[in-house]
Amino acid sequence: MFWKCSTFEFDTRVPVVMGILNITPDSFSDGGSYLKPADALSHAFKMLEEGARIIDVGGESTRPGAAPVAPKEEWARIGQVVETLAREGVCVSVDTRHAEVAAKAVAAGASIVNDVSGFRDPAMRALAAAGDFGCVVMHMPGTPETMASRAQYADVVNEVRDYLAEAAASLEAEGVAPARICVDPGPGFGKTPQQTIELVRNFQEFRHLGYPVMAALSRKSFIGYAYKIDDPIERDEASAAEALMAAELGATVIRTHNVAATAGALRGLRPFAILGLGANVALVAEPGEEDEGKVAQLNHAISQLCLLPDSQIIDIAPFYKSKAAYYEDQQDFVNTVVLLRTGLPPKELLPCLHAIENSLGRVREIENGPRTLDLDIVDYQMYVVDTPQLTLPHPRAVERDFVVKPIQDILPGHVLADGTAVDAVPEEQRLGRAWRLQRPDTPPNSL
Questions:
Q1: Torsion sign (Cα): 8, 13, 17, 18
Q2: Which of 255, 321, 371, 405 is catalytic?
Q3: Please, are residues 357 and 373 in contact by the beta-carbon 8 Å criterion?
Q4: Where in the chain is the domain with CATH 3.20.20.20?
Q5: What stretch(es) of the chain map to CATH 3.30.70.560?
């Protein structure tokens, strides 16, 4: 997936670090540190040297209870810095909720508008429609002055996800290309520490929306709550650890105060592997319950994947039923896809998958024939290989409906390591037609 921001384009398969530059007297952790343009610019270039690819410049504090700043004053604080950085070829993001400030910043060369109010203002949406800058759509109930009193959710993850989906759709309806949009669940903005922790432990849910996901966790109060660190300045190490966890779950843009610590932590990010799972021979099943038996075998395989060394399952697609492909004289399959973060290189991962297959009596007598369990490496992050033992990405991935549809559920817009879009083959031309498997406890036609 790529995030297009004016003349910049970011491949978000690798986390993009955004350095925070607050030119404010009252930001919660560094207010007053960079009020002079020379100090602000010096800090910006330091963050770039440490690994930031974007500098996010803000002139209004949005901490809980913060008083609003007039657009004229906000621009007076940041204008010279935005202009200078843009002139030097830096990808500048402007952190503002005011269309007047955003317009001036874009005219001065800013490539991203990071709007904590989620582009609710029609003037902001109109500006976005008229430009080509990247748009960061954040969730915040109310305003910085009122958001703390509005931290009320029945299901914070689902409600924030639905809000972001609607906000992004509103931008698209105005003519903003989806590739320009990034979503930010807004940790700490109108959420209690407990609610924020629930959000950040479920970042994969926001990846399902099909846009890059920002993790703006740095020095937030939930880190103080979880790690028992009162002073925001002392939260950088914990913030870096949280950034790594968010990246493993699918966050693609990491906003941080301490670029060096965060970039260092992200060097520990494990590659992702997309695994395809399938079965069409039920080992134990009553007549008429064969699908349940196949599902049980896939669940067994998933439980075994949980035991792989230095590996963690990040996401599991819904189960699909599919017609057999290639060798058609056999029963229908049940399929799914698993997203795995793993320290195992492909040549070590593959025999582990074969061992799991063998544990369920996999027999390889007929090519593409019936099987109790099939585990394939479909894609491995930024890794392309073609040997007699292993070809990656899987050479038939995009022609298989039972592979493409589950991937689209958990990784919309995914591009394989060789640059091929996972949906490159039209659905009507794919083999192994697949449809969402009806759960036994679900009424007909409800999926």
A1: positive
A2: 255
A3: yes
A4: 2-266
A5: 272-436
Q: Output the pLDDT for position 284.
A: 86
Q: What is the DSSP string of 193-211?
A: HHHHHHHHTTHHHHHTTSS
Angle of helix 71-87 versus helix 37-50 axis, rounded to 10: 50
Distance CA 337, CA 302 (A): 10
Q: How much of the chain exceeds pLDDT 90, in percent?
A: 85
Asked about 191 being catalytic, the answer comes back as no
What are the pLDDT digits (tens) for 159-194? 999 999 999 999 999 999 999 999 999 999 999 999
Q: pLDDT tens digit string along 381-437? A: 999 999 999 999 999 999 999 999 999 999 999 999 999 999 999 999 999 999 999
* Length of the chain (residues): 447
Res 443 pLDDT > 60: no
Residue 246: closest CA among 284, 211, 206, 298? 206
Say which residue, 148 or 195, is predicted with more confidence. 195
List phi, psi (to 5°) of 160: -70, -40
Strand-pair category, 16-22 with 253-256? parallel
CB of 259 closer than 8 Å to CB of 21: no
Out of 104, 220, 235, 341, which one is annotated catalytic?
220
Return the closest-CA partner of residue 262 out of 218, 196, 204, 230: 218
Q: Is the peptide bond before 141 cis (omega within 30 degrees of 0)?
A: no
CATH superfamily of 272-436: 7,8-Dihydro-6-hydroxymethylpterin-pyrophosphokinase HPPK (3.30.70.560)
Give the integer Cα–Cα distance in Å for 150 and 197. Answer: 17
Residue 407 has φ and ψ, to the nearest 5°, of: -65, -40
Selection from 227, 228, 185, 232 nearest residue 209 by Cα: 185
Its CATH class, for the domain covering 2-266, is alpha beta
Sign of CA dihedral 421, 423, 429, 433: positive
CA distance 11 to 412: 15
Distance CA 104, CA 124 (A): 12
Q: Which two tokens stand for residue 140?
A: 């915040």
Beta-carbon count within 10 A of 130 CB: 13
**Is 161 among the residues known to form the active site?**
no
Amino acid sitting at position 405: K
Tokens 């990034």 found at:
182
Contacts 24+ apart (CB under 8 A), 436-441: 436/318, 436/319, 436/320, 436/321, 437/291, 437/295, 437/318, 437/319, 437/320, 437/321, 437/334, 440/292
